[in-house]
Design a protein that fits this description.
2 copies of one chain form a homodimer. The first copy, chain A, is α+β, with helices and mostly antiparallel strands. Chain A is 43% helix and 22% strand. In chain A, helix 3 crosses helix 4. The first copy, chain A, is flat. The N and C termini of chain A lie far apart (44 Å). In chain A, 23% of the residues are buried. Chains A and B meet through helix 5 and strand 6 of A and helix 5 and strand 6 of B. Chain A binds a DNA duplex (25 and 25 nucleotides) through helix 2 and helix 4.
DNA sequence: TTAGGTGCAAATGATTTGCAATAAT
DNA sequence: ATTATTGCAAATCATTTGCACCTAA
């Protein structure tokens, strides 16, 4: 996808740093912390500041381009929005993998009827032990 | 429930501050932030320090007496463990209510079979608009 | 050109830690 | 009496903010 076009459509400037952040998130197979993005871009010799990254992410979240996730690490991680999925977080090695396929729309309908609460979004994450770590625990 | 007994069974001292924290969480109908606990106990004229509250909570979490939850407020909240439930968080007024009754054990079984990932626990929270705020938005 | 973006430095706020004093068993 | 626990002060660390300079449109 052409991030440059997407940003223009959203009405914000397609700066180098913004595109770099988007490309990094796009390439990553897991959500990234702000500091991780910072160091990765540094390694790519891209001049960037942590504060800028936070500002970019904040704007992206407002535009629904990016979502934040909390893996209980004392900091937040960010990933491209777009496809709704959940995560399997290994509490042993920290590995994160995506889990597609959970439909809570029925539950949300029940919540709407029973509590008159209108669900806009939900957070669902699974913590446990990945295949590799289960083997190592033997 | 007799928290004093519970703490003894767990093998840690039943101090005034620990019991005060437990009683406060027990009385609350929603998870509380550390600073909230701090101020509430202050109001009860109980001498206590924020650092102590964090240490108490840390210990309680280790003993599975307390669980932490993240409502995306930039800080964590804590509640008594014990009964598994989820929350309906109103993004408009901040009100939090409990939602009992969601069974993900089937999903976790599928995850186990398909990804060989062993789920130890899951986090499921609903964000949206409560009944009152829906009315006010008219 | 010019308004939106960024870098830099300093501030903020939640959470953690060292250490001496204190209280539960 | 002994050891865990606490209070206090200082440190840490993620995230935010003010402001002058820069750059995409």
């Amino acid at each position: 996808m052409d991030f440059k076009e997407i940003l223009k459509e959203k009405g914000i400037k397609a700066t180098k740093t913004r595109l770099a952040v988007l490309n990094l998130l796009d390439k990553s197979d897991q959500p990234l912390a702000a500091t991780t993005i910072f160091h990765d871009l540094k390694n790519q010799k891209i001049k960037i500041d942590l504060a800028t990254i936070y500002r970019i992410i904040e704007k992206f979240i407002g535009l629904k381009i990016v979502k934040q996730v909390d893996f209980r690490e004392g900091m937040l991680r960010y990933e491209l929005a777009g496809d709704h999925h959940h995560h399997l977080i290994c509490q042993s090695c920290g590995d994160v993998s995506s889990y597609h396929g959970e439909c809570l729309s029925e539950v949300e309908k029940v919540i709407k009827e029973k509590y008159k609460f209108n669900v806009a979004e939900h957070v669902l994450e699974f913590f446990g032990t990945c295949d590799n770590c289960q083997k190592e625990l033997i």
